[in-house]
Amino acid sequence: LLFRKRNNGTCEFRTEIGGYPALRLCQNWWNAQDIVQEYSVDEIVLGMASQISEREDSIVVEDLRDFVFGPMHFTRLDVVASTIMRGRDNGLPPYNELRKSFNLPTKNWSTINPNLYNENRQMFRKLEALYKGDISQLDAYVGGILETNGEGPGELFGAVILDQFLRLRDGDRFWFENTFNG
């Protein structure tokens, strides 16, 4: 769901000679074929395995916030804002409603991520003001991102991912455990 990158917004590729060419996500978003043709899979995997990623958090790198289609100012698009709007357009229920549908307990502003709340109360106050204090209107994507605690996705996104993999497995008639599917 999220791209793990370094603070400077680059992703390094390690060549066998020992070089580290860095590619920015915003300059290569639509150029996946060019990257694969220019670099081998070994270089890409070695680069991903040898660089230290940022800790899991609710901060989105600049290349995804402002420069998805390139570094030029006229190409600005915020992927997070687009994801929130897509959720609204497609009728995704608010955060606590979605939690209820996965049999997870509902949350209030201080219990979404207690550690983050204690570290950054100002952010939660701004978020609460943005939603006029009504947590029942909090977007599922925003709440799910805020749950992230450094050990992978939070409860909601973990439940969503598990549900999707179970549906994928159970819907596959060739899955070896689906003996009644022919």
From TrEMBL:
InterPro entries: Haem_peroxidase_animal, Haem_peroxidase_sf, Haem_peroxidase_sf_animal. Keywords: Oxidoreductase, Peroxidase. One of its GO terms (molecular function) is heme binding. Pfam families: An_peroxidase. GO terms for biological process: response to oxidative stress. It comes from Anisakis simplex (Herring worm). This is Dual oxidase (inferred by orthology to a D. melanogaster protein). Coiled coil: none annotated. The keyword Cell membrane does not apply. Signal peptide: none annotated. PROSITE patterns: PEROXIDASE_3 (PS50292). It comes from the Eukaryota.
